[in-house]
Amino acid sequence: MNMEKALAKRSHEVEWSGIRVMFALADEIPGVINLGIGQPDFDTPAFIRDAAKEALDQGFTRYPPAKGFNDLREAIANKLKTENNIVADPTSEIFVAVGAMQVIFNTMLHLVEPGQEVILIDPGYDYYSQIRLFGGVPVPVPAYEKNLFKVDPADIKAAVSPGTKLIILNSPSNPTGAMFDADILAEIARIARDHDLYVLSDEPYEHILFDGRKHVSIAAFEGMKERTISAYTLSKSYAMTGWRVGYAVAPKVLIDEMEKLMEHMVSGVTAVAQRAALAAITAPQDCVREMVAEYDRRRKIVHEALNAIDGISCIRPESTFYAFPNISGCGLSSWDFAKYLVREHKVAVVPGSIFGKRGEGYVRVSFAASVESLQEALARIKKGAAGLRG
Known about the structure:
Elements: H1 3-6, H2 18-27, E1 33-34, H3 46-57, H4 70-84, E2 94-97, H5 99-111, E3 117-122, H6 128-133, E4 137-142, H7 153-159, E5 164-170, H8 182-194, E6 198-202, E7 228-233, E8 246-249, H9 252-265, H10 271-282, H11 286-307, E9 322-323, H12 334-344, E10 347-348, E11 350-351, E12 363-366, H13 371-388
Helix pairs in contact: 3-10, 4-10, 11-13
């Protein structure tokens, strides 16, 4: 029997992650400084780890509720009201998920029919495989460096067709570090209302903001709560990538579907991880502020150093822990440049083309690394760029 031929057709709609391909290449080379990884380099704060240990002693080792513990959903509701200006019923409009990734997966599964169009931003996070897995058609809308990678709502409006079902927004944005300002989101909200569209708002970097910026959630705009699925995670804010806890905020009918499917998939998010999440959300947020302050320090170092390299330019990221430098002056494609850096100069970055066609000519550089590692990596990148220019 040929198992490859036996695979369901939808399996072929899912591509291997380009980021993982780069990681695999980097892992083969000793001494590589990895600036490609999309996770905090900090340990999960001690008080969160202590809450998990206490939960074990309290017996949180059994099946959790499929939708999440009641007290965690109540804490999430309070956080949403205070920080996001979203009023959500914890009993019917909040779902605790296996990270924000499950929220994205479930949204595509429950909303997108074969042939329906999904608008997304280019360059932007790679939602393509999840869209195609359920027969959806990705419709990229450009975000230009000259506009600090902020999408123009007029371009979204122009992309709307009778087949459009969903708009995906990711602000703060991976990989560009752009934030969509309130006026941009207000206009996108108007487009969604006028054309009866749904919005998936993916907000994992909501707390990693610089220069006094404030995060805005599109679900907070008038008439948007009933047509928005908001995806959040504890992974980035609290250095909890491995704990796999996120949550969805959505209309009851969709939350019910998520809960129903959870029973058939994994029963629920690990009980101990949920208790750690409760501690993270309800405690004073000093740990978040401390991590963001350190990211800001690193951001300034990376921004200055990249712009001092011939052939490379970089806008100053407004959020996240990513820079998205333009490397077109180095004369290689983004994939070839990334391969050259990792093989010849032992620095791993992510090719921009992974994030859409308009990511070509850029690479993603994570500054979720120590200052010492960043300075050494930047020196290697400078040497590598000089080698390309002769």
